[in-house]
Specification:
Helices cover about 40% and strands about 25% of the residues. It is α+β, with helices and mostly antiparallel strands and about 325 residues long. It is found in: Bacterial flagellum basal body; Cell membrane.
């Protein structure tokens, strides 16, 4: 953003140039010098601001779905929201989480590679306490999980990935599947330490307990679909989906439309006097013999040929031929 000078600042600058306190040539030289920006190769920028915004939108939906899911499962107040979406090296993420935490390692076909849903122990044990009949408080001392506790954790978090699948549906259809549950981050090496990851931090509140849920997505995993995270693709796909829905609705409405079908035996012309003199058992000669079949019209357009008959005691018409485009003019 360009700074705008006030009138007093402009007057002071002109006075300094006039008195010789400032040199105009030096100012020009400073402007022409190349500006150097420091780049840290250990923190490679793999996600653009456009990608970060798209990931934020996706996981805001994920947070809403998780809130609904955990509220129903725990039967208590749950509030989950996106706090931050950032990119950083995988090694920095591992060093930032507690030594004892809940690490849900999962895959999401058709994406190749593994991702991690890290749940703060305070949040995880509050969920566990609530599921096992408690009030939903977290213990002051965090111990290793028992086999029963591990099974309960795996069950609730494996179902939570349905919310992730729903949130990503606007970009790509994925099938998240829990692969393992770990408690020690040192035993979890899903990518190289310098690999850039997208870290989505979710603030979580369960009753009176608060904590964080972190979703770690390595760049190498979602690299094949990075183009779909652009704003342009986002709006084009939404427009395409709206167009498909409009087309589908139009097709359904056309299918429900009613059209009159007329089976025409033939035509004849008589005078008004002959019409007034018609009586029972009189015969009107048609313009064609019965052997030529019936003309079946949809609306006013000739579409089929057929023969008269009966089906279950009701008058019916059997279609014998279809009128091709252009043939109806020759027939009539």
């Amino acid at each position: 953003m360009v700074d705008v000078l006030s009138q007093n600042e402009i007057d002071a600058l002109l006075a300094a140039l006039s008195s010789g306190e400032m040199n105009a040539e030096e100012l020009k030289k400073e402007e022409t010098e190349k500006k150097i920006r420091i780049y840290d190769f250990k923190r490679a920028v793999r996600f653009s601001k456009d990608h970060i915004r798209s990931l934020t939108r996706i996981h805001e939906n994920f947070a809403r779905f998780l809130t609904t899911y955990f509220s129903a499962q725990l039967r208590t107040f749950v509030q989950i929201s996106v706090v931050q979406v950032e990119q950083l090296p995988y090694d920095e993420f591992i060093r930032s989480i507690p030594k004892m935490t809940i690490l849900n390692i999962f895959e999401a076909e058709p994406l190749e590679g593994r991702m991690v849903l890290e749940v703060n122990p305070n949040v995880a044990f509050a969920m566990l306490d609530r599921l096992l009949g408690g009030s939903g408080t977290s213990p002051s001392k965090i111990n290793n999980l028992t086999e029963i506790e591990t099974t309960v954790m795996e069950r609730i978090f494996s179902r939570a990935f349905d919310s992730l699948q729903e949130a990503w549906k606007t970009v790509v259809d994925i099938n998240p599947r829990l692969e393992a549950l770990e408690t020690n981050p040192q035993f979890m090496q899903i990518v190289s330490p310098n690999e850039t990851i997208a870290l989505i931090s979710l603030s979580t509140k369960i009753g009176d307990t608060t904590g964080m849920i972190n979703l770690c997505i390595p760049h190498v995993v979602i690299e094949p679909i990075m183009a779909k995270l652009s704003v342009h693709h986002w709006f084009v796909s939404q427009k395409k989906q709206r167009g498909e829905r409009d087309t589908s609705a139009l097709v359904q409405n056309v299918h429900r439309a009613q059209l009159p079908i007329i089976a025409e035996l033939g035509t004849s012309e008589i005078t008004v006097q002959e019409l007034l003199n018609l009586s029972v058992h009189d015969v009107i000669a048609l313009n064609k013999p019965m052997s030529t079949g019936l003309h079946i019209k949809v609306g006013e357009k000739l579409k089929f040929f057929g023969n008269p008959g009966q089906v279950k005691g009701k008058v019916a018409v059997q279609i014998t031929d279809i009128v091709e485009e252009g043939e109806e003019e020759n027939v009539e």
